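Feature request, filed as a ticket because there's no other form

It would be nice if the structure record came with a short human-readable summary line next to the tokens. Right now we just get the raw output. Example of a typical job, pasted below so the devs can see what we mean:
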Amino acid sequence: MRRIWLATAAMLTAVIMTAACGKGDTVDSGSPIGPDQPATPPASATPSPGPELVRPKGGTVDPRKVPWTRATPAGDGVMISWSSGVEPCYTLDRVDVKESDTEVTVTLWEGTTDPEAACIQIAIEKETFVKLAKPLAGREVVDGAK
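Raw output as currently delivered:
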């Protein structure tokens, strides 16, 4: 009986995780980046195995700044990586980009698309591609949420 219960619990967990952790789309960016800018990051910007590649969706409720953990140069932009939760509770709303001669400030904004949703508390590694107006060329990438 215990084996049947454990097998059922494992299958239920797999179904919930599969439904809650779908893959996102590729993302284009600018300043600010919204859901109406369809573009695909260059091949060099393909995320490493594991992180979910997402694009800003816009229209979230109560968007807030989210710190990111890594910026990796990629083609004509950068891949920005961060830890987040599952949608609809943690949805990338937009990405603000401010460029100067010495640095590029990237600010991620996340909100919810369903304030009534019950979401599991699990960390997901996410990445988004941010296209820059000019090549990075040694400029420092700064987190606008810090």
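Something like this underneath would help us a lot:
The radius of gyration is 17 Å.
Helices lie at 2-20.
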